[in-house]
Amino acid sequence: MKKILVIVGAIICTTVVFFYCDQAKTGPENQQLAVKGAVTPDSMVKRGRYLVTIMGCNDCHTPKKMGPKGPEFDTDRMLSGHPAEMPVAKYDAGTAKNWILFNQMLTNYVGPWGISYSANLTPDSTGIGSWTEQQFFKAIREGKYKGLDNSRPLLPPMPWQEFSHASDEDLKAIFAYLKSIKPVRNVVPAARINNMQQQQ
Q1: Is residue 48 within 8 Å of residue 178, measured between CB atoms?
Q2: Which pLDDT tens digit goes with each residue over 127-157?
Q3: What is the tens place of the pLDDT at every residue in 44-61?
Q4: Buried-state track 87-109, b at ≥16 Cβ within 10 A, e below 16
Q5: DSSP per-residue string spanning the chain
Q6: pTM to 2 decimal places
């Protein structure tokens, strides 16, 4: 019985020693260093680029041009939104009450809500150049236009309801990446919102 107690006591002491040694290695100071070492501005931008790519942001926010294999992203206007100089094509208003219509660049949309355009996400003053991180969070989390209180909601097809579930770290990374890309001057046209009650 004594041998068992001694062995159990030795195991407990060893566990306590290892625990405190491990705590000393990962104390608050060292934990901060580890975090700082892992998350740099460069790694944040790389993470943001990855997220923007897999979330399909370019599909709507980058104008397209015709390449040898069909439509491709116009990298000179990456994430600059619907081109200011491109008018809305003629469409049947009756069809737009029941269908969603897209232009050939996938930057302009017509549907029961009205007419919407993909936003300029570049760090130009015509894009998100003056935005704060808090505005970006509000836009994505609450669906607020330009991330401002008392503004209109973000319009379809922007899937902010799904993107609102992104972690703070992911949204910070996306914002860091968007602030790092080439600024493109492009004043996106104002949306036209229908009175939905009148249509019903």
Answers
A1: yes
A2: 999 999 999 999 999 999 999 999 999 999 9
A3: 999 999 999 999 999 999
A4: eeeeeeeeebeeeeeebebbbbb
A5: -HHHHHHHHHHHHHHHHHHHHHHHHTSHHHHHHHHHHH--HHHHHHHHHHHHHHTTHHHHHS-EEEETTEEEE-GGGTT--S-TT-PPPP--HHHHTT--EE-TTS-EEEETTEEEE----SSSTTTTTT--HHHHHHHHHH-BGGG-TTPPBPPTT--HHHHTTS-HHHHHHHHHHHHHSPP----PPPPEE--HHHH-
A6: 0.77
